[in-house]
């Protein structure tokens, strides 16, 4: 049975310590004040509570110098030239203070990442805008009097032991108000080392990227596995990939990407252009049921294959592009895991080949176009940034 009150235990679950202080009680009380607002009726109570906890933690972060929110908007600005996705910052936006657009994002992020079945949430949904305004009314007043949580001030700046570093990284990866929504659906299936190879948070940043923004202390480089060592391909593999690239580009007149209509076209490309042995072991007969294919080649990575998505890509070299189908389904490339290989999706976004992508059931086409890379990072995490 759900309680109509948010308890300190829930507040402590998004914090890196277990002993409560008067500061924690203050913010728990604040979360309960937000909890009395009017929420979308279809939103399950657990996510109403999360919204209130995350919004209160955002205020705590802002006044306590934790640095999570500042790191997020700073990196978003570096990547995209603006502080936040979807909306321009309001004229009176002030870094390190409470802002209404920040609260819109926190509410949207919590709702969109909620694991109950729901369509993609329109960031411009009037219910989000209304709820953010009511949250802002409460938090802007609390900003003037809320206590600083000294335990969080510069929390990630340094560490004193390997154990402390591990503890801080574990919290940063999955249990802060900004990162918990991203990885909550997967955390139960993750091993400890996954923290270092799976991106987290709204921008799908790896832990070493988060730490690189949050701290200037080079001691973090001593933490085992935090900073990845670049993989080096074996010479035989490099040679194989280079040969595939040469055959591919020679056979296509220099093109690195081809669109093939049906299995027979794929068969012929593999046999005639790439010179694969024309037998059942090499001609990928398991793909006969698919209607179309995309092949893309890279001189070092080799070749990738995607299937049944040609209609969605507005490439002048793609004879299978279908604008009507793209308007219905191209958005799926940005949000559906394993539908589009990461390198191909990056190519499509960079070259603006998904102009028809729009929110399902909506006419929000410009919003998607202007935020396509962010939407893919936010929705796909390692399925977009894992390579």
Key attributes of the depicted protein:
mainly alpha, 4 domains, 3-stranded antiparallel β-sheet, 3 strands, 45% helix, 5% strand
Q: Main β-sheet, in a few words?
A: 3 strands, antiparallel
Q: State the domain count.
A: 4
Amount of helix: 40-55%
- The helix count comes to 17
Mean pLDDT: 95
Which radius of gyration do the C-alpha atoms yield? 24 Å
* Bulk shape: globular
| Count of beta strands | 3
Classify the secondary structure makeup into a structural class.
Answer: mainly alpha
- Listing every helix as H and every strand as E from the N terminus to the C terminus, the arrangement reads HHHHHHHHHHEHEEHHHHHH
Spans of at least 5 consecutive residues whose pLDDT stays below 50 are none
Strand content: under 5%
Gap between N and C termini, in Å? 43 Å
The spatial strand order of the largest sheet comes to: 1-2-3
């Amino acid at each position: 049975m759900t309680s109509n009150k948010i308890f300190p235990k829930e507040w402590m679950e998004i914090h890196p310590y277990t002993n409560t202080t008067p500061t924690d009680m203050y913010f728990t009380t604040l979360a309960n004040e937000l909890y009395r607002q009017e929420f979308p009726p279809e939103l399950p109570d657990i996510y109403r509570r999360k919204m209130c906890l995350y919004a209160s933690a955002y205020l705590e972060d802002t006044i306590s110098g934790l640095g999570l929110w500042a790191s997020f908007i700073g990196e978003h600005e570096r990547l995209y030239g603006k502080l936040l996705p979807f909306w321009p910052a309001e004229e009176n936006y002030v870094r390190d203070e409470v802002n209404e657009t920040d609260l819109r994002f926190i509410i949207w992020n919590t709702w969109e990442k909620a694991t109950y079945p729901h369509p993609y949430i329109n960031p411009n949904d009037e219910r989000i805008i209304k709820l953010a305004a009511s949250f802002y009314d409460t938090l802007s007043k609390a900003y003037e009097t809320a206590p600083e949580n000294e335990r969080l001030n510069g929390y990630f700046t340094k560490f004193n032991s390997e154990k402390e570093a591990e503890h801080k990284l574990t919290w940063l990866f999955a249990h802060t108000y900004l990162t918990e929504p991203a990885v909550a659906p997967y955390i139960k299936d993750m091993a400890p080392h996954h923290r270092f190879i799976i991106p987290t948070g709204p921008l799908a940043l790896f832990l070493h990227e988060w730490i690189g923004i949050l701290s200037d202390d080079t001691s973090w480089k001593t933490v085992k596995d935090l900073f990845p060592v670049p993989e080096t391909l074996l010479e035989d593999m490099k040679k194989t990939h280079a040969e595939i690239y040469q055959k591919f580009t020679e056979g296509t007149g220099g093109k690195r990407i081809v669109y093939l209509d049906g299995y027979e076209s794929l068969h012929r490309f593999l046999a005639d252009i790439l010179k694969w042995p024309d037998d059942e072991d090499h001609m990928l007969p398991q793909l006969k049921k698919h209607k179309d294919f995309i092949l893309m080649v890279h001189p070092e990575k080799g070749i990738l294959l995607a299937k049944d998505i040609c209609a969605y890509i507005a490439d002048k070299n793609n004879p299978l592009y279908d604008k009507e189908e793209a308007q219905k389904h191209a958005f799926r490339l940005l949000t559906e895991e394993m539908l589009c290989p990461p390198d191909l999706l990056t190519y499509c976004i960079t070259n603006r080949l998904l102009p028809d992508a729009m929110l399902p059931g909506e006419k929000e086409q410009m919003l998607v176009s202007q935020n396509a890379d962010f939407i893919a990072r936010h929705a796909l995490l390692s399925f977009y940034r894992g390579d």
